[in-house]
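Fold this complex.
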Amino acid sequence: MRGRGHALPLVVSLVALFASASRVKLVVDTDIGQNCDDAWALSYVMSRGDVFDLRLVLSSSRNTTGRALLAAKLLALGGRPDVPVGIGTPTPLGEQMQGVGPEWPWIGSFTLKDYPGKVASDGLAALEAELAAASPSNPVWVLGLAPMGNLAAVLGSRPELALNARLVAMSGSISAGYDLRPPAVPEYNVAENVTAAQTVYGMTWGTPAVTAPIDTSAFFQVTGDAYRRFLEAAGGGGGRQEEPPLARVLLENYRVWFEHGGSSHGAMRPFSPANASSAMFDLQTAYMAACAAEGALFGWTNCTQHRYPALDSLPLRLVVDASGYTRVQPSAGAQAGEAQLFFAATNFSMPREAASDAMGAHVVDWIARGAWSLPAP
Ligand SMILES: *[C@@H]1O[C@H](CO)[C@@H](O)[C@H](O)[C@H]1NC(C)=O
Ligand SMILES: *[C@@H]1O[C@H](CO)[C@@H](O)[C@H](O)[C@H]1NC(C)=O
Ligand SMILES: *[C@@H]1O[C@H](CO)[C@@H](O)[C@H](O)[C@H]1NC(C)=O
Ligand SMILES: *[C@@H]1O[C@H](CO)[C@@H](O)[C@H](O)[C@H]1NC(C)=O
Ligand SMILES: *[C@@H]1O[C@H](CO)[C@@H](O)[C@H](O)[C@H]1NC(C)=O
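Structure:
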């Protein structure tokens, strides 16, 4: 009896040690529903429980209740019903489908009461609590896939919390626009809420932020062999019962998005759910976050804050101007501290088709394995 009494706390503390040493805490800020790359990014993150301790999925921008429903449904059906969901600050709805976008019909009859995990109706308080509980030596990684209203609201009022955070964002345009040609343009996540982006870009982070600007992320699509493998994992080959549900659920979500307006979204290569994904801005961002986490956790030189296989990144001092452009400040490296640099993936390190294929193969390999769950103790 005495032995067991001592063993349990030991096991618990060993598990806690294992969890904190081998994974980074992650919050995802997402406008899921608008474009379908958020759902792909979230699915990939769900599969990367080897590096991410997923603490919170926070909905951002326009109809944040509708977006929280989409995130909760993907988490519940895809295999991570334990992850807390937070409802972020709503903003004016815009014109598309209830302020949610083409994925809106996928909500169907799902309600937040159907979600087994926690739902924080005040998502900003949940974000603030995560940041406050973190520290510069054990920061929360923030995967920013949306306009930055939530992040600006919390960090604007408590700027010291940025020292406990590590931002990896889909954000900005450095020298190319959505057609991958110069000039730079106001990128959606910045232009949708310029003052919020100005606040977030102006923070002093504990570690330089990372961004996947449209310069590279607009080119990334899951196509060819990788997409065929995704279809197989989704049950295209006859739908074996024992397959993990994640790929099937993601494909269903993608089809709904495509059929309700997504098909008109631009991409470098034509796409349909039969043969390719649309442009995967947010999925590239999630890939970069996982890669940087691998580097931080395991000391791998292939993956660091500024190195991701297939991509080249530059340390830049970026400032958001009043029109929503992300301007590079020349010679600012010297003036600004390290803490205000962004590592921006501005180019590929190989021909771009090969880079897109390599990232596609990597993410599908993970998504096909399904959502990650804690090994039984
Ligand atoms: C947001 O979406 C939800 C889910 O479809 C819907 O019930 C609600 O009416 C929408 N909110 C607004 C303000 O349109
Ligand atoms: C922009 O973000 C701020 C929070 O920083 C929020 O108060 C405001 O409503 C947002 N504006 C729009 C247009 O989304
Ligand atoms: C995918 O299918 C669409 C529609 O059938 C077609 O226009 C497009 O060329 C195909 N794309 C690829 C990458 O094969
Ligand atoms: C980085 O290298 C490690 C160790 O070789 C490997 O397991 C991992 O998959 C690599 N990551 C990427 C994104 O290539
Ligand atoms: C981008 O990378 C390619 C090689 O993949 C290289 O040929 C090209 O010069 C690079 N462009 C810039 C602007 O650095």
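The domain at 4-220+280-299+310-346 is CATH 3.90.245.10 (Inosine-uridine Nucleoside N-ribohydrolase; Chain A).
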